[in-house]
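Researcher: Please translate sequence to structure tokens.
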Amino acid sequence: MSLKITRPVERKKLSETVEEELERMIRQGEISEGDALPSERDLMAAFGVGRPSIRDALAALARKGLVKISSGERTRVTRPSADTIISELSGMSKDFLTQPNGLKYFDQLRRFFESSLVRYAASSATPSQIKELGEALELNSKSINSDTQFRKTDIYFHRVIASIPGNPIFLAVHQALMDWLIDARPERVNTVELNKQSYNDHVAIFECIKNGDVEGADAKLSAHIDYVFDNYYD
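Model: Translation complete:
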């Protein structure tokens, strides 16, 4: 009998084999969260591979959020957080931003994402959350003359909005999205006038959220994103 092979046998690196086996053991509960993995020397003996393969495997698991590597300590099993998941996308996303229309696509992503957040905030924000957003707005107003500080307080204002639903994944996505877009923003010599308008946009968004105006908040956010894209990225 002859066999018809439809695809070649996949050749894996030794480190990938180690990574897959350790990941299987972690996900199936054979190694529990918080447990320390065996030493590198013991892992080398168990898998019959060299130190580079073990270190590459552990580094790959760390990128997945499955282990934490600390200098001078044994590697321990962890569980991936929302931040871990998003950070895995960071490199690819920053590369995508440099491609034709990349910035335009991320602008559209921001519109879809923040539109839902601001609508939720306008309909569901508690008095304490509105107070926190007002405090973020005040910080933003005090930093208009400093581009570096304005960027930080700008992001913080939007981050407070992203925190209102209480979903950690939303916060992680928002942080990553802002990091990617800020990295892509060209340097400007004088941004004071731009910052003033952005601050005024924030005031308008805040007032709509405070007053429970869902449609108004969404419209003000859309106008704000239009302004930012046309003036900060042009």
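Researcher: Any highlights?
Model: The domain at 84-233 is CATH 1.20.120.530 (Four Helix Bundle (Hemerythrin (Met), subunit A)).
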